Amino acid sequence: MNTAICLDNSENNAKVGLTLKRLTLVNFRNYKYQRLNFNKPFIVFSGENGSGKTNILEAISFLSQGRGLRNAKLSDVRTFDFLANSQSTPTFINNNGWAVSALFENFGDEYLIGTTVETSTKETDYNETKETERRIIQVNNQKLSSQNELANYTSFIWVTPQMDRLFQTSSQNRRSFLDRIVCSFDTEHSKRLSSFDNVYRQWLQLLKNNNINNNWLLSLEEKIASIGVAIACSRKEQINKLNNFMEKNPDDIFPEAYLLLDGTIEKMLDDKPAIYVEDFYKESLFNQRRSILYNNACSGITKTDLKAIYKTKNVPANLCSTGEQKSLLLSIILSQARSIVNHKGLTPIMLLDEIAAHLDEFKKNAFLNKISNLNTQSFLTTTNIFEFMSIKDCTQFFELKDNIVKEHTF
Ligand SMILES: Nc1ncnc2c1ncn2[C@@H]1O[C@H](COP(=O)(O)OP(=O)(O)OP(=O)(O)O)[C@@H](O)[C@H]1O
Ligand SMILES: [Mg+2]
Fold it and tell me: How far apart, in whole angstroms, are the C-alpha atoms of residue 403 and residue 205?
């Protein structure tokens, strides 16, 4: 049975916070040019497999720091003409890069955010030239010095079908999920992560090149240790806060989760001062100089895992049923969103790709109802438009077919 959702909001005239009002895509995956205007709290994209639904959510996710919800290579995003040659080597449709631009409103304040890629040619150590691409971001036509500054303007939470198996896949995926949660509460976290990445890569490169400049290596190890410990501290602090929030605000339908950080550095910080942990980390990097060349990742914050417990049953998430794991994931996501709304005010925009999979009708409607009560704007995808009839009164529907996006009215 479909119960109507959103009636509360329309009666109370509740105001949605951060809102995406207009989106323009240029040379973005299957879209050569597409402009869309949004005017409802829920936006549903429907269409058959491969029609370009996830591509739109991905484009929106590029309006935050990082490489979007697919964690894509920047060079994969530009529109290819797959049929242009027979060698199955994709050909670029033209020489222009891709771009996404969007008009946002946050409680009456409007701003325009645009992102594109800049290609530069670098000479390598072996006298060859190498093309590198990096993302450029503008807010109201002013270039940002770093993409981390985007955290002051946008906030997104996404759920993708791949995340249905979050507790069973590699720890890398859970680490990304963990760091996205931390970034949503601590705007400095992404800056620390990119600085860490930068020094860690330099250190690895020196070791790979057999560079035995000991002072240089030592200074990089010192930097890795100090930024690494700051990252671990923030992860601990924000996950503790989220656990407390979940304990104090249990949901009536979605199961209560308890999150655990499984990492040497984070665990050591339980009972040792940060300065001691930094020294330990530095020494461990020094001792791993040789083995890292065969291991690829050395112990430290790059190996930390996030575990979740289904609290009332005391069962680790990876041993729960598929539906239970999805409910647990949505419970964490809901608490994250509620906690952001409570503490920060920049309401996150929800990107919900195939959210209804593995959810029964009751849970799906309950989730939509809870999101609607948060007054967030949500983008959803589906292969079956009728899945979202319960929210039809507060939803804009778009149908995708043959690279054409058409608004659908009921
Ligand atoms: N760089 C690119 N250039 C052109 N087309 C691309 C590019 N990258 C991906 N595509 C195409 O975009 C199409 C749509 O992909 P998308 O993942 O958005 O589909 P979808 O509607 O979400 O499908 P599903 O229901 O299976 O999840 C795919 O057919 C894919 O081949
Ligand atoms: Mg998809």
Answer: 43
Amino acid at 289: R
pLDDT tens-digit profile, the chain (410 residues): 455 667 554 434 456 689 999 999 999 999 999 999 999 999 999 999 999 999 999 999 999 999 999 999 998 999 987 665 544 444 444 456 899 999 999 988 999 999 999 887 777 666 677 778 889 999 999 999 998 899 899 999 999 999 999 999 999 999 999 999 999 999 899 999 999 999 999 999 999 888 778 999 999 999 999 999 999 999 999 999 999 999 999 999 999 999 999 999 999 999 999 999 999 999 999 999 988 887 766 789 999 999 999 999 999 999 999 999 999 999 999 999 999 988 766 889 999 999 998 889 999 999 999 999 998 999 999 999 999 999 999 999 999 999 899 999 88
Q: What's the CATH fold of domain 1-155+346-410?
A: Rossmann fold (3.40.50)
Q: Read off the pTM.
A: 0.92
Which atom of ligand 1 lies closest to the CA of 58?
18
End-to-end CA distance of the chain: 19
Ligand 1 in reach of 27 Cβ (< 6 A): no
Fold of 164-339: Glutathione S-transferase Yfyf (Class Pi); Chain A, domain 2 (1.20.1050)
Centre of ligand 1 from the C-alpha of residue 325, in Å: 27
Q: Is the CB of 47 under 6 A from ligand 1?
A: yes
Atom of ligand 1 nearest to the CA of 77: 1
C-beta 54 within 6 A of ligand 1: yes
Residue 50: nearest ligand to its CA?
1
Establish whether residue 273 lines the binding site of ligand 1, counting it when its CB lies within 6 angstroms of any ligand atom.
no
Q: How many helices (H) and strands (E) does the chain have?
A: 11, 17
Which ranges of 296-360 does DSSP label H, i.e. alpha helix?
A: 322-343
Please tell me if the CB atom of residue 55 comes closer than 6 angstroms to any atom of ligand 1.
yes
- Classify each residue of 372-408 as buried b or exposed e, where b means 16 or more C-beta atoms within 10 Å of its C-beta: bebbbbbbbbbeebebbebbbebbbbbebeeeebeee
Closest C-alpha residue for ligand 1 atom 11? 30
Q: What is the domain partition of the chain in residue ranges?
A: 1-155+346-410, 164-339
